[in-house]
Amino acid sequence: MARKPRLFVPFATYHVYCRVARGEFIFANHTNSELFLKTLSDVRDRDGLSILAWCLMTNHYHLVLRTGAVPLWRTMARLQRTVARKHNRKMRYLGRLWQSRYRARFIDSNSYFKQVVAYVHLNPLAAGLVDDPADYELSGHREAIGLAPNRILDTSGLLGLFEEEHPSRMRAAYVDWIRSIAEAKWLENEVRELPWWKDANDAEEIARPSPNLPVETFDQQQLIDNRPALTLTQIVDAFSATAGIELEELSSRRKRRAIARSRCDLSAVAVGRFGHRVCDLARVLDKNPGTVSRWLTNADLRLRTDPEYRSQLDLLEQRIVKHTTENVTL
First-to-last CA distance in the chain? Predict the structure, then answer.
C-alpha cells in the first residue's frame, strides 16, 4: 500500500522521533552514538536545520528542529539511511535498523514548543537514567545550560524563545522552565499521548490537515498552506515568463551568474514554497536530482545570510501566482 503523502511546511518547527527496530539498545554503544551525532551534525549543516532540542536515548531519538527550504522528509531520510548503512556495514548486519520511518509533529504554539523542549531534554530523567538532566551527556540540555560546547544545539535559537525581553535572563528562564516541568504528570506519557500529539489523526501525521491553519507559525514563520496548488509545469512556465529565462537556458550547462541564481530561485520557490519534490523538478528540467539539491542548498544558504533574499522570493512567488491565475482565467 502506498505511503500517505506528507505535508511539508518550510521554516517551521517540528517534534521528530524514531525508534530502533526490535528495541535494541544500539546507542548505549559509544561508537554508535557518535555515528548518529556526527551524521546529525552533517545533515544539519547541509540542509540548513536549526536544532532547538535533542536527546539520543539507547534505542530512540527525539529532535525539535526548525527546517529550512529543504523538505523534512529528505533530511530525515538522509539521516536514518546514513546511520543504518554505516552501522550495518560495520556490524555486518542485514535488515533494517529503524523500526519505521520517522514520526513528526508540527509545533504550532509557543506553549507546545516549550513543553516539547522540556519533554525531550527531560527524557533521561523520566526514564530513570539520571536524577538530574545535566548528568546525561547525550542531550542538548548540557549545551543549553553551558556545561558542554555547542555541537548540535542552536543554543541562541532555543534560549531566545524563552526570554525575549531580557536577553541576560534567557538561560535562567530556560532552567526555571525545565525545573517547573520536571514533576509534570504528562512527562512520562507515551509520545502519542502528549498534548501536542493528541489531536493527530495518526502517528504518521506531520501537520494538521485543517484548512484553518494560522497564517504564521508561533515564531512568525510563513506557512505554505494558504498558497494555491500549482503544478510544477505551471510554476516553471510562469517562472520562465516572469524572469525572462527560457526553459532551455535553465536546463542547459551554462554557468552564467544570472542563470545560476535563477536556478536557485526556481528551486527555492517550487520545492520550498509549493512543496514539490526535488526529483520531480529535476525531471522537468532534465537534470540530476543531486544537481537540483545543490541549487536548493545554495538558496537556503542565501536565505540565512542575505536579509533581502526572502523578500525577493516573496515577490517572485507573487508574480508566479499572478501570471498563472491570469492565464488560467483567460
Answer: 40
Q: How far is CA 85 from CA 20, 32, 223, in A?
A: 14, 12, 34
Question: In whole angstroms, what is the distance from residue 322 CA to residue 14 CA?
Answer: 31
Rg (CA), the chain: 21
**Cβ–Cβ < 8 Å for 75, 159:** no
- Do residues 59 and 94 touch, judged by C-beta distance below 8 A? no
Nearest Cα to Cα of residue 274 among 313, 235, 243: 235
Express each pLDDT in 196-238 by its tens digit: 666 665 555 554 434 444 434 444 444 444 456 788 899 999 9
What would the grid cell of residue 237 be? 512556465
Q: How many CB atoms lie within 10 A of CB 125?
A: 21
Pick the CATH number of 13-193 from 3.90.550.10, 1.10.10.10, 3.30.70.1290, 3.40.50.1110: 3.30.70.1290
Q: Does the pTM exceed 0.70? A: no
What is the 8-class DSSP label of residue 222?
A: B
Where would I find the beta strands (DSSP E) of the chain? 13-19, 50-56, 60-66, 103-106
| Cell numbers at 304, concatenated | 540565512
Specify the residue for cell string 538558496: 299
Task: Parse the chain into domains and list their residue ranges.
Answer: 13-193, 232-329
Pick the closest to residue 259 from 280, 239, 286 (CA basis): 239
Per the structure block, which three cell numbers stand in for 78?
538522509
Q: Is domain 232-329 classified as CATH 1.10.1750.10?
A: yes
